[in-house]
Amino acid sequence: MSALTVEYIVGLLRTYAGQTSDPVDVLLVGALALQAYGYQDRVTRDVDAELVGAVEPLAEFLNQHQIPADLTTNFSGWSVIAMPVGYRDRASDLVHHANLRVRLMAPLDYVIAKLRRGTEIDLDDAAFVVKRFHLTADQIRAAAGAAIAASPRDTVLFLFRTTVDLFCQSLSAGQS
């Protein structure tokens, strides 16, 4: 399977909406969102998205097109670390037509999503978004605090705090 582009996926979603007459409302949360933010070298072979409505029909449609998909109606639930309250409201429209809405997280929320997972590639993705949108360590720490406040009490909060601190320190080191 070849790499996916955000343009290709939007076209497929448009086809799905037209074939089913079901409105499609997705919030891209993975590498496709990163492409939409302007990182054209980021390759992906799957779709990660939160959607409004039934997951199964869209997942089946994408599977018929040999596209793996991780779809949910609650992206915040993908981690013990919750997304900051209001992340859906802060999302912006990439595409908004009668039966199709494709949204992107606010850049700061995207950074928190990547820090929740904390792999090397996620940290690289977060660093790109920080640089692209001129986010500050203070903004990241505040958003991380909001995520922690919305999360259940768990020892993983310590690991998240450590990831956020190390990431913010690396931003400061990169500026000197």
Number of separate helices = 8
User: Averaged pLDDT, please?
Assistant: 94
H-E order = HEHEHEHEEHHHH
Name the poorly predicted regions.
none
> What is the strand content?
5-15%
For this structure, the quaternary state is single chain
Rg value? 16 Å
Q: In angstroms, what separates the terminal alpha carbons?
A: 42 Å
Helical amount among residues, as a percent range? 40-55%
Largest sheet: 5 strands, mixed
Task: Report the count of strand segments.
Answer: 5
What structural category characterises the helix and strand content? Answer: alpha/beta
Q: What is the 3D shape?
A: globular
Strand order within the widest beta sheet: 3-2-1-5-4
Outline:
With 176 residues, this protein is of the alpha/beta class. Helices cover 52% and strands 14% of the residues. A hairpin with a 3-residue loop joins β4 and β5 (100-104).
Explain this structure to me?
There is one protein chain. The protein has 176 residues and is of the alpha/beta class. The chain has eight helices and five strands, in the order αβαβαβαββαααα. A five-stranded mixed sheet has the order 3-2-1-5-4. 32% of the residues are buried.
